[in-house]
Write a structure and sequence with these properties.
about 325 residues, 15 strands, about 25% strand, alpha/beta, 6-stranded mixed sheet
C-alpha cells in the first residue's frame, strides 16, 4: 500500500481501525504475559528473527548468516518457519532442499538449500520445535519470523528493518505497515537495518552479489559479464533488487515486480525475450526451476553484517550454555 509510507488522507481515514488493532494486540500480549493464554517454553534456546512491518525486510538472509556462523562455532542449529504460502495441510512438515516450494513455501526451501540444517514448518511453532528435537540433536533453534507469535517464548529477539522503508508512516495496520508500534524496538535484543544504519539499529546488513547462476545448467557467471538484462522480483521490496543490479552497472531494459511469495507459473514469464538474460532473486528461482529457460539466471547474495557481531553471537552462545 503506497499510502503506508506517507501520512496521506487515506492513512488518516484508516486510523480508527489502527487504534482498534492496537487495542486488540496489546490485550492479547498482556494475556500471554500474565498466563491467561498458554505460551510454550522449549527445552533449548529460541532465537526469533522478525520484523515490525508487513512484507519482506531481509529476515531470511540474516537467518542464513546466523546459522552459518553458529555452525562455525560448532553448534547444531535448526530452523522453524510458519511456511507462509505453503499448500500442504500435513503439519508439522520437514523441508528438504528438493521439497516443492508450492507445498512448503519458497523461503523454507531456500533456507534448506542454503544452510543444510533441519527446517520445519507449521503455523504451530511448538509442533515444529518438538518434531525437530525428537529427530535431531540440536543446540539452538532459529525462528524465521514470529516476533508477534507470543504463544512461543523466546530467548533472543532480533528485528530486521528495511532501511528504505523504515517504519513507514509510523501507523499500525491498516493505516500503516506496522504490526506493533516503533516503541517495541526498545524491548528487543538487537535491531538490524538492511541497507544502511537508521536511528534504531545496532547492526547494518548489506547483501552483496558477485555472480549469477543459470537455472538450467547451474553455470556461474560474474555479473560484470552481463550488459543488457531483464529482471523480475517477487519479494517484499522488488525495487531493492532492481536498484542493486543497476548499481552494478547493468542496463535493465525491462523489470517486472510481483507480490511477495508469488507462485510463479510459466504464463507469468512466457513473454520474456529469449535473447536477453533474465535475472531473478534466489527465492524466486526455487519456484521457477521446473520450467526454467536457457536464458534465466538467479543472483545469490552473501550477507555482510556490520557491528558488534561477536557480541551478538556471544549472547546466543551464552543462552545455549545456560540450557546445557
Amino acid at each position: 500500500m503506497k499510502f503506508w509510507y506517507s501520512r496521506s488522507i487515506f492513512a488518516w481515514l484508516f486510523l480508527p481501525l489502527a487504534g482498534l488493532f492496537w487495542l486488540v494486540s496489546v490485550i492479547r500480549r498482556q494475556l500471554f504475559r500474565y498466563g491467561c493464554f498458554r505460551s510454550y517454553r522449549a527445552k533449548l534456546p529460541i532465537v526469533v528473527v522478525g520484523n515490525l512491518s508487513v512484507g519482506g525486510n531481509g529476515k531470511t538472509p540474516l537467518t542464513i548468516w546466523l546459522v552459518q556462523h553458529l555452525q562455525q562455532l560448532g553448534y547444531q542449529v535448526g530452523i522453524i518457519s510458519r511456511g507462509y504460502g505453503a499448500k500442504t495441510k500435513d503439519f508439522p512438515a520437514l523441508v528438504q532442499a528438493n521439497s516443492s516450494p508450492e507445498l512448503v513455501g519458497d523461503e523454507p526451501v531456500l533456507l534448506a538449500q542454503r544452510t543444510g540444517v533441519p527446517v520445519c514448518i507449521s503455523p504451530n511453532r511448538q509442533q515444529s520445535i518438538e518434531l525437530l528435537t525428537q529427530q535431531f540433536a540440536l543446540d539452538v533453534i532459529i525462528s524465521d519470523d514470529g516476533l508477534q507469535h507470543y504463544a512461543l517464548q523466546r530467548d533472543i529477539e532480533i528485528v530486521v528493518m528495511d532501511s528504505q522503508l523504515g517504519v513507514g508512516n509510523g501507523f499500525l495496520l491498516p493505516a500503516g505497515p506496522l504490526r506493533e508500534l516503533p516503541s517495541r524496538l526498545q524491548q528487543v535484543d538487537f535491531v538490524v537495518a538492511n541497507g544502511q544504519a537508521n536511528p534504531y539499529s545496532q547492526f547494518v546488513m548489506q547483501l552483496k552479489p558477485q555472480y549469477a547462476i543459470n537455472l538450467r545448467t547451474q553455470e556461474k557467471c560474474l555479473l560484470s559479464e552481463f550488459k543488457q538484462v531483464a529482471a523480475i522480483a517477487g519479494i517484499g521490496n522488488p525495487q531493492r533488487f532492481f536498484t542493486m543490479l543497476q548499481q552494478l552497472g547493468l542496463d535493465l531494459i525491462k523489470q517486472q515486480a510481483f507480490s511477495d511469495h508469488h507462485h510463479f507459473q510459466w504464463t507469468d514469464l512466457s513473454e520474456q525475450d529469449k535473447h536477453i538474460p533474465l535475472l531473478m532473486t534466489e527465492k524466486d528461482a526455487v519456484k521457477c526451476q521446473s520450467f526454467a529457460q536457457a536464458n534465466w539466471w538467479y543472483v545469490p547474495v552473501e550477507t555482510q553484517l556490520m557491528g558488534d557481531t561477536q557480541g551478538l553471537l556471544a549472547k546466543i552462545e551464552q543462552k545455549i550454555k545456560d540450557y546445557q
